[in-house]
Amino acid sequence: MEFGVAIFPTHDAIRPGDVARLTEDRGHESLFFPEHTHIPVAHTPYPGGEPLPHRYVHTFDLFVAVTAAVCATSRLRVGSGVCLLIQRDPITTAKEVASVDYLSGGRFEFGVGAGWNREEMANHGTDPRTRMALLRERVEAMKAIWTSDEASYSGEFVRFGPLWSWPKPAQRPHPPVIVGGEGPTVLDRVLAFGDAWMPNYQPSGILSRAAELRSRAERRVSLQVMGIPADPKAFEEYAAAGFDRVVHWLPSAGRGVVERALDGYEAAIAEFTGG
């Protein structure tokens, strides 16, 4: 099982390239950045009913942060956790993903999701009621661009005639598509167009759904979890359930605070591994 971290890359915290270098130097396998282009002042209540955290309003652009991270490292896998593809043009995003993957030597992990903030979606012209179908079509369209010399796609929401787009990703056929979310139909989306499932950590419920996914899948689907606590017992549970990667949230703060958070995470990993 691989151990990764995630952080909201905010302008008032450690810089994306610096946290990436720190993460790689300390032996972690991966680093993930989330995405929010903006937050409408009047917005859908934050999941759980808590006040919206400061970091949601202050993040750098996802692909700017990813580029800084891959340029500062040589081994670290860097990913979107998650890219809100329902708010993005698929042709432009396919170009960004392919460019980052090519320049990094094939180190990009493409996490995708539909998000929770309906007003944010609407500001991008997305109807929240059809966002799941839109997500599938945009992923399928991007795969066509990555894998075809002359790509075309015809769906209900995404349509384009034959086009040329290079570079192609370094990874073949394309970077892993990691589907985020825990909604009632998420497993259908994973099976339809995902290479992996990355739900948010929950003490219960996720492990039984992971077993369901494995039983339904006719191909290998990676199991990954976002937001696992620094707890050896949680590592044991997810490892026993067949998870390939666990990802721990770091605080959006200065270097010293982030280093102390990594110390705690690494102590838990050492207890789990016996290292």
From TrEMBL:
Pfam families in UniProt: Bac_luciferase
Keyword flag Ribonucleoprotein: no
InterPro entries: Lucif-like_OxRdtase_Rv2161c, Luciferase-like_dom, Luciferase-like_sf, SsuD_RutA_monooxygenase
GO molecular function, one term: alkanesulfonate monooxygenase activity
Keyword match Flavoprotein: yes
All copies of domain Luciferase-like, residue ranges: 16-220
Gene Ontology biological process terms in this record: alkanesulfonate catabolic process
Keywords (A to Z) from UniProt: Flavoprotein, FMN, Monooxygenase, Oxidoreductase
NCBIfam families: F420_Rv2161c
Protein name: LLM class F420-dependent oxidoreductase
Organism: Trebonia kvetii
